[in-house]
């Protein structure tokens, strides 16, 4: 097996293995959780999915494009990740400030604020996950990339099983299992790529950020429109019914 085919095999192995884990997780949760409770969780996951379309602002795609043009990879990723982290800070502040309102809209329960807090934490870990996995992929470390994406799915499955075994049978099984598993998996990736977080010699390069923005913004608009079309029907149903 030549190097190119081997690398391609490893890149596809992770998503396939992750899909198999999801194939186990979804029937497991639907068996133990009622359709009504599962519907509440689906709305939450939908919000999380929609947020990812806006968190990166296209800087992830611009980072991948610029990767081979910049010799200092740490300098590049730190500047590329700066704006998405600012966006996550703003959105999480908004969510925390109106946490009861968001909880009531998503779960029809103003007291369910813990998932909102976990969602805010996950915004930041998802950003690090996205950029660090992109860094690994751009280095063509296919086996490591597949392993880490697979590990995240395994953590989600394990966390979901833990909540089911604890006796929970409501929407929190899916939400806590997904978010806690995701966050733990992301923390593993962050720990593995910790050297990229060193702020030694860091400086904010406005020219570079502007260059990333010019390329990433049209991509962001396209992703945003697609996300709106894919989710608007479920939000409208949730709002009126």
Structure, described:
- The protein has nine helices and no strands.
- The chain has helices spanning 3-32, 35-55, 59-66, 73-97, 99-107, 114-138, 142-165, 172-192, 206-240.
- It has one domain (19-240).
- The model has no long low-confidence stretch (mean pLDDT 84).
- With 241 residues, it is mainly α.
- Helix 1 (3-32) packs parallel to helix 7 and helix 3 runs antiparallel to helix 4 (73-97).
What labels describe this entry?
single chain, 241 residues, mainly alpha, 9 helices, globular
Percent of residues in helices comes to: over 70%
Overall geometry comes to globular
Mean pLDDT: 84
Structural class: mainly alpha
Q: From the structure provided, what is the oligomeric state, counting identical versus distinct chains? A: single chain
Distance from N terminus to C terminus (CA atoms, Å) equals 55 Å
Unreliable stretches:
none
Number of domains: 1
The H-and-E topology, N to C, reads as HHHHHHHHH
Largest sheet: none
Count of DSSP helices? Answer: 9
Give me the Rg, rounded: 19 Å
Strand percentage, roughly? under 5%
Tell how many strands the DSSP assignment holds.
0
Secondary-structure blueprint:
Layout: H1 3-32, H2 35-55, H3 59-66, H4 73-97, H5 99-107, H6 114-138, H7 142-165, H8 172-192, H9 206-240
Helix pairs in contact: 1-7, 2-6, 2-9, 3-4, 3-9, 4-6, 4-9, 6-8, 7-8
Brief synopsis:
This protein has 241 residues and is an all-alpha fold.
